[in-house]
Design a protein that fits this description.
With 94 residues, the chain is mainly α. The chain is built from three helices and no strands. The chain has a domain of 61 residues. The longest helix has 31 residues.
């Protein structure tokens, strides 16, 4: 068992790891949100509209952007499941 040094910040190792996981999930979700906003600003259209445009031909950069943008849209659901969401409510680990 991993033991976190007792510095008075957490009641137990379980609480520490629950908070750590929550922080990682929140960081990931914020990163995905920022990625989505970045591409919405760059292309000034929605992901769906961008996808439709790419069906008629795309550059390598556009294909890379499409992959990253799509992942940023789809991955938050997986991270929320990891965290036991909605909305980021961690299940009791006891």
């Amino acid at each position: 068992m991993i033991c976190i040094p007792d510095v008075g910040l957490y009641d137990s190792d379980i609480v520490f790891f629950r908070d750590l996981i929550r922080d990682v999930v929140v960081h990931r979700l914020n990163r995905y949100e920022n990625t989505i906003k970045k591409f919405e600003r760059k292309y000034a259209i929605s992901f769906s509209e961008f996808s439709d445009q790419l069906a008629h031909g795309a550059t390598i950069e556009e294909e890379d952007d499409w992959m990253e943008w799509g992942a940023a849209i789809n991955m938050p659901g997986a991270w929320r499941r990891v965290a036991g969401s909605p909305p980021l409510a961690m299940p009791a680990l006891v």
